[in-house]
Recover the amino acids of this structure.
């Protein structure tokens, strides 16, 4: 159902003479149709915020010493942490796929004399960078890079 | 505070955008190995000496700082956006200050964490 939006949503800086209807939220918001992906994309913010602090704990433990490093490894093996990371991994992949699809549409038609490459080329470059960085990071964390 | 938030909005958007782009690219391998495969025993965990050697290089420190800090800004900004969409525009200034404050403190701690490696 459509519901009233914030009364100041989309309000012009200076009130004009044109009368407008009060703003309402789209009827499909928040979890129907296209709004489901939109809302989930925003909701991944909770996971990103939390996983950033988990990574901070890991790096902090690494700087503290070998005992702290062993301790944090044990903590990460807790099923709650593993479950959280599995959900986060799915969220990260979702963000990547959605963002890479949106990225070409957000490019300006030209910057000075330069035009951006065609959309499929941009998407291809983004996926190549994502896969490359993921392979490098994984190899480093699995001991393949010293 | 609202005026201040408007002034620093370009910086926040820069960090938010890089949180989506670079944060996501860095997080995928990190979460996959450190959060899932190593804890499940699918791959061996890095020894302390190996991990410390990798992390304490210049590239390692920069990557780790970005991996920690950028997702915090992505998270903070998206939670703020979600709050506004769900009717929280009236308390937006307070929430934004709180969320960006968390992201800023986390970013400073990230820098400290990689400096002390």
């Amino acid at each position: 159902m459509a519901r009233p939006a914030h009364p100041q949503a989309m309000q012009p800086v200076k009130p004009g003479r044109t009368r407008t209807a009060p703003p309402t939220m789209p009827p499909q918001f928040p979890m129907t149709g296209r709004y489901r992906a939109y809302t989930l994309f925003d909701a991944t913010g909770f996971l990103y915020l939390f996983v950033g602090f988990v990574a901070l704990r890991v790096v902090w433990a690494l700087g503290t010493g070998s005992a702290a490093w062993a301790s944090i490894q044990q903590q990460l093996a807790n099923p709650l942490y593993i479950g959280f990371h599995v959900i986060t991994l799915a969220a990260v992949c979702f963000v990547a796929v959605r963002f890479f699809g949106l990225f070409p549409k957000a490019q300006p038609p030209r910057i000075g004399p330069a035009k951006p490459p065609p959309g499929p080329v941009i998407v291809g470059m983004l996926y190549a960078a994502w896969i490359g960085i993921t392979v490098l990071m994984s190899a480093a964390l699995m001991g393949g890079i010293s | 505070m609202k005026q201040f938030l408007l002034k620093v909005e370009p910086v926040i958007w820069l960090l938010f955008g890089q949180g989506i782009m670079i944060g996501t690219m860095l997080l995928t391998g990190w979460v996959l190995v450190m959060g899932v495969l190593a804890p499940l025993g699918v791959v061996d965990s890095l020894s302390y000496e190996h991990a410390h050697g990798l992390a304490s290089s210049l590239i390692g420190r920069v990557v780790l700082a970005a991996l920690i800090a950028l997702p915090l800004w992505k998270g903070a900004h998206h939670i703020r956006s979600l709050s506004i969409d769900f009717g929280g525009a009236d308390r937006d200034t307070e929430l934004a200050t709180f969320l960006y404050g968390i992201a800023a403190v986390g970013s400073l701690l990230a820098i400290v964490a990689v400096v002390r490696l």
Remarks:
- Chain B has a mean pLDDT of 95.
- Chain B touches chain A through 65 residues (CB under 8 Å).
- Residues 29 and 35 of chain B are 9 Å apart (CA to CA).
